[in-house]
Amino acid sequence: MSKKLLALLLVFVMVFSVALVGCGESEEVLDQEEDNDKSDGGNDDVQKEDPEKSKYGGTLRRAIWSSPPGVLHPSLYNDTYDAFIVDLIYDGMLTPDPNMGYEGALAKEWEISDDSKSVTFHLRDGLKWHDGEPVTTEDVAFTFEFIAHADYTGPRYSSIKAILGAEEYHNGEADSISGIEIIDKNTIKITTKEVYAPFFEDIATRNIIPKHIWSQVEISTAKEATELLRNPVGAGPFKIKRFVPDQYTELAAYEDYWDGRPYLDTFIIQVANQDTAQAQIVNGEIDFMDISSMNDDDISFLEDGGIIVHQFSSDGYQHCGLNNRLEVFSDKRVRQAFTYAINRQAIVDNLMDGYGSVCNVPLPPGHWAYPNDVNEYEFNPDKAIDLLQEVGWEYRDGTMYRDGEPVKFSLKYPTGNKVRENSAPLIQQNLADIGIEVELLLMEFGTLLDEVIERHDFEMYLMGWGLSPDPDARGMWHSSVSNLGGWNTVGFVNDRNDELMEEGVKYLDIEDRKGIYEEWGKLMNEEMPSIFLYSMNQGFALNPKLKGTQMYTFDQYYKVNKWYIEK
Fold first, then answer.
1. Which CATH number is 316-535 given?
2. Whole-number pLDDT of residue 51
3. Which of 16, 304, 332, 525 is the most exposed place for a label (fewest CB within 10 A)?
4. Predicted TM-score (pTM) of this structure
């Protein structure tokens, strides 16, 4: 690689490395490698070979809190629980590393053009899909054509529309994407219209799908191809063995994985009850789980039981979505009033024992893009009442009225996160204190996703969003993704919002982007399209016999093929 090329690559990497430091993220990466301080006194060959062989075998059981819908397709799934499975089955050309740089996955090397608009990727030799078919650049091109197709119903088009010709292809004005050039079966060049800061995050790490399978399916009905979705073929470290709805998913080691056959024979992802999972992991029935309720008592219980507990800064935030499409929430003063009315600090202090922070913009506190001098919306019921009266609502005898009728709303929220579940009654009480009645509707995570994303059937809901190191939020907040199936679930449409997000991805240098996102953050803080509630520290509980794990905020499965159960 030339010095010039290396310098250009470092510019890309620095964007993400600085972002990580700005988040207040520690440099520490969870690394549970075993102590190699024992010697059996034998020859060198025995010492090198035996420890490696001993790592193979065993089953890892991961607990999750809600049933995956079974949309096991990297371009179609919508929820975290499917993602826990998808990320084991598929690989992208590149993958993020713990230092927020990028390293090769399906691609062994890559070069950046002098104008920073093109990247040429070289796939590894001998790559195979789980069914034995070869992985080629035809699959890479098809993956982006699938997402850019006019009939595509998933939420990821906004992430790849920066590719030259993607919009023309999407609009039916071209038969292919001009910015994707297949040079040979292992070499592909991808060009964007302009310099695109999130190129590696949005494009280079995109999980690749097999053309020989999905080209046989109508894209408009791909989400209905249940048999294919639940029996996916990828090129990642594990392949599907069986998907049992509402119970578990069993995956087996992929023998021909490009980075070596995983040490683990089997990876099981099972639906568990949060109330009993702690006892199960202490008793050895579970090996790996999220800690959904970060508090002193739960952490002490796990650690006293010999469980390894690791904590990370949050990679996202929880919010209370308000349906901006409804006239009742169309005035930002109403959304601001609801924010003043909810005691978000009490949620952090009382439900999380301080393991988190109040969120006022859709960015992690401490991120380089986080704006200064934003409204903190400190708990103030009187201010909330004043704002609502300002827009014509009436407050009398402890009840809030709108157009002469008592104000009532429903709040939908999912199972699967204790803090979120326990925050719902507190939000209900806070709004009751300003005269607003709230009906709580608890449902399965998949059901809520359908009602919020696919049908827009809600008034208020609780949900969390995960974030990437790059502040680009077009996939969640741009008006183009406010339609059915898009991730702008609350339907926030604001011209200046769109302009700022589009401008923010045109530069590589953080200093050039910082002012743009400063203004964007302040706009979101002022408009408050959702009530940004809190960012919660992440925690993982691990069986002490689970070794080789390297986890960090943005990747729970880093080098998962090197994980093993100590015998």
1. 3.10.105.10
2. 60
3. 304
4. 0.73
